[in-house]
Amino acid sequence: MHPASHDLEALLSGVAAGIAPSELGELFTAAEDPFVVSLAGGMPALGGLPWERLADLARDLLLRSGPSVLQYGGARGRGDLRAGVADVVAEQGLAVDPDDVLVTAGSQQALDLVARALLDPGDTVLVEAPTYVGALGVLAAQRARIEHVALDDDGLRPDALEEALRRAARAGRIPKLLYTVPHHQNPAGVTLALERRHAVLDLAGRYGVLVLEDDPYALLGFSGPPLPSLRSLAPDLVVHTGSLSKTLAPGFRLGWVLAPEWLRSRLELLAEATVLCPSGLTQAVAAEYLATTDWRNQVERYRDQYRERRDSVLGTLDVELPEATWTRPGGGFYVWLTLPDGLDATTLAPAALAAGVAYVPGSAFFADGGGRDQLRLAYCFPPPDRLVEGIRRLGTAVRAARR
Amino acid sequence: MHPASHDLEALLSGVAAGIAPSELGELFTAAEDPFVVSLAGGMPALGGLPWERLADLARDLLLRSGPSVLQYGGARGRGDLRAGVADVVAEQGLAVDPDDVLVTAGSQQALDLVARALLDPGDTVLVEAPTYVGALGVLAAQRARIEHVALDDDGLRPDALEEALRRAARAGRIPKLLYTVPHHQNPAGVTLALERRHAVLDLAGRYGVLVLEDDPYALLGFSGPPLPSLRSLAPDLVVHTGSLSKTLAPGFRLGWVLAPEWLRSRLELLAEATVLCPSGLTQAVAAEYLATTDWRNQVERYRDQYRERRDSVLGTLDVELPEATWTRPGGGFYVWLTLPDGLDATTLAPAALAAGVAYVPGSAFFADGGGRDQLRLAYCFPPPDRLVEGIRRLGTAVRAARR
């Protein structure tokens, strides 16, 4: 009586029918081999967190206020955590009322909520070339039309942005959204220069495009404070997302979104429909940590750790891959490398893995097949000696492929 | 140069432009007054949880395996928690391989993922009359066409379901999904009888409709074990969602979905695009709790607690509101009450609140304006003496309105 499952499969929505597993899954599984140096995943190195302190905080919170910490809460998030988030974003010069913070299940959920609140199928979104793979997933789930805009060592290029906006206007489709990672971009490792920030906002304002500023790496600069956030320069025009995943730890699954009020209220309703509320337990632990621990000092230690790792990678690249080119990140987790002789990074990946190093091929960061001769090196997780070994193995694999 | 925000508001998606804050928010705020007995929110009463044990678990996990617990994880969820979920659903006779469990941020996210994976705008979904308000929110966010199917004391009525399916078929629109809460339904407090389970599945199979079985109250029956889950009776035809919110606590934000493989793989990809992964911290604590604590005994104590509260409400209703009618739940959190003389529950709510009692008006549980003379009484959170006082106040408010 029951139909075969292939009949029911026809019930899939257009979105679900169109999504496919990325090749990254296989890559990450292979990279779990302890012999392999994985430069693939953007996992923060958490060893240096104050574990005793976090453990005591969690214990005390459950003993002192368990029934409220483990209860349902408001969709907007706990007041103490929203105050903590306001402190964190103040470090990058962003003054915000805790009441205007919407706490999310990581900044990934923030991106998803913004996409759902703004995009109908076929709407155009501008993204950097390359861009964050997780943003591409969110935009694909909304069936958006994705257009890439070139970047260089100073971030998104305003001339390329203006050209993209003009071209879209001529075609009768004004983009709704410009998605950018302005500090230590994932995957390119570049930062949007100050004068370009003004130029980008000016263009967005002229064309009536909202800017989605995804800024998880703002506090991870290796030489001095972050640049002014786009949202601080044009709050009416910019939606800002952030995360505790890189400055504290991903396992809390806590991020946030700051948005103009007309949008924030909608995001909150969508968040409620999606997950009811963020976890009270992780919110309470994170809030207490931010309120009672010298978290700025912990972030400073993260910066020192990642600076040392970047230096290991850049120094070894100079020796091992002189024929390639790469970005020189001023913070964050990533180096973006262009292979010599138009070598294909996807084709090279199995040989690199066999040599004992994993990376993410550049095409993962494009919706249009770009980036074939490029790749991302994430230096955040392995210790420096392993990074050196990984880059050496990459050099070996590249030299073998060029023969 | 920047446009006014009312220009940018035109960028909202069709979904976001159409959602509006529910009136429930105001109600829940008013119900926070300590004088008011709130029968509005379905919050579990958590006082009896083993707090020392949970606190020690959390502390030990952070000390012993902090760097893995607070790291990113797989979208499917941790293996230890998937094994724990398999144990929990086994209590309701559902045999499942842990590999087939998809962990979600509460069952609310599970509902949202299923809706996104199946529904295009305008697709028809059948729901009970009344139905869970959070499901209505999820379906509205997919712009589904919602049709209600009558229920009675034995749950969803197969005759009404067949009539709805026939009517839809005549109109050329086969529903994609039937959403049901088969045990101790929210808000009606009724359970789908065993013979009706077979009848419902038979109809779903004949018409090629997938059944979404939302079953968070299955283990909270007051007299004996749960009935066979729909999924155990027809695994190819049924998507099953569950939650730790009612058997452990909501603040973990952990639920799950069990689905046919063609759907599960899509749900996992959508989950990854939405939140990357569930919280490693709450997953690890919950998994350790399920593996090392006598959680079945804790659920038994929850059952005793809620049975006593239900008895307080039913006994007091007999005395205070003899002119009304109501369901007599065999488990779960809710009594569904029909007011006498066609009194309007929404109109009555402010007077009831002034008398010191809050409830959710019945129309919240309908997408079509139904339920105006009905209301939901949640007896889960207040202690018995407060429940008695709340029902007395409700009686006073109803008598005053009938004069």
Question: How would you describe what is shown here?
Answer:
Chains A, B: Residues 52-385 form the Aminotransferase class I/classII large domain. Chains A, B: It holds the Pfam family Aminotran_1_2. Chains A, B: This is PLP-dependent aminotransferase family protein. Chains A, B: Keywords: Aminotransferase, Pyridoxal phosphate, Transferase. Two copies of one chain form a homodimer. The first copy, chain A, is an alpha/beta fold. Chain A is 46% helix and 14% strand. In chain A, the strands form three sheets. Chain A has an eight-stranded mixed β-sheet, sandwiched between helices. In chain A, strands 10-11-14-13 form a four-stranded antiparallel β-sheet. In chain A, helix 9 (194-207) links the parallel strand 6 (177-180) and strand 7 (210-214). In chain A, helix 14 (345-355) crosses helix 15 (384-402). The termini of chain A are far apart. At the A-B interface, helix 1, helix 2, helix 4, helix 6 and helix 7 of A face helix 1, helix 2, helix 4, helix 6 and helix 7 of B.
